[in-house]
Amino acid sequence: xxxxxxxxxxxxxxxxxLYLRALDSREQDSILGDHAAAEAVGRIDYDWAKLAxxxxxxxxxxxxxxxxxxxxxxxxxxxxxxxxxVLQLGCGLDSRAFRLDLPSGVxxxxxxxxxxxxxxxxxxxxxxxxRTIGASVTDPAWLAEIPADQPVLIIAEGxxxxxxxxxxxxxxxxxxxxxxxxxxIFDGVALWVVRMTQWCARRLPKRIYDYPGxxxxxxxxxxxxxxxxxxxxxxxxxxxxxxxxxxxxxxRALYRAANRWRAVRYWLRVxxxxx
Length: 275
Ligand SMILES: C[S@@+](CC[C@H](N)C(=O)[O-])C[C@H]1O[C@@H](n2cnc3c(N)ncnc32)[C@H](O)[C@@H]1O
Description:
Layout: H1 13-25, H2 35-43, H3 60-80, E1 85-89, H4 96-99, E2 107-112, H5 114-123, E3 130-134, E4 152-156, H6 165-178, E5 182-189, H7 191-203, H8 223-227, E6 232-238, H9 249-260, H10 262-265, E7 268-274
Parallel strand pairs: 1-2, 1-4, 2-3, 4-5
Antiparallel strand pairs: 5-7, 6-7
Helix pairs in contact: 1-2, 1-3
The chain binds S-adenosylmethionine.
């Protein structure tokens, strides 16, 4: 068992995604099959009852579908670049480095804020090709430690929306200055979702909504080219468009309906870009 965990602020959001992946992994037709998440939930001394509210569990499909899309695109990149460097930013307690079948030449770096990485190190061991870095992605210093001699896969799942757009731009500039070539996989939310979370963070009591509001929206895939003209937008996948993979028939039908309505379909999308 870990020491007592009581994160507040943006660090607490990764406990939510971990918990939801654990719920998904217990389904008979799990979308992601992230059993490491269920194991981690069992080992972390945290008041999980806070998350066991009606409504929360329904988000497990959203989180599992998003992670699966990241896994599929990451696996595709690593098939084409078996000696790649992977930088997973805002990794939380995600187990992607162990979930994917990594070619032996891959060097993987998981980055998150220092207290998250401290907890992560209690749960997942480092190894020859796998390291963790406890730092803010907005701090320019840590990138100097990362070898720049191979193509890079940059993974930012559930992260960029929490950063001001000026920080997103500065981060992407540092990355394309450091590496010669690579791909970026990230997810983005519509502007109305940014506004809604800001309203919730300001107006709702903490016992109902205790998370920071989002700061950056992704209105279209080409936003990444505006943030940094070295990127070329490649593809976008709305999470609701993956409705056929949802095992629960009620939610499958709801997601299918949500996918027909543009504003809702663009709630959450996964994007891929190259430089
Ligand atoms: C919604 S969670 C997603 C975690 C993980 N990617 C997942 O899908 O489970 C957001 C993560 O971003 C991290 N984060 C937010 N701002 C950060 C920053 N400036 N530097 C590093 N990590 C940050 C948080 O600590 C948290 O772990």
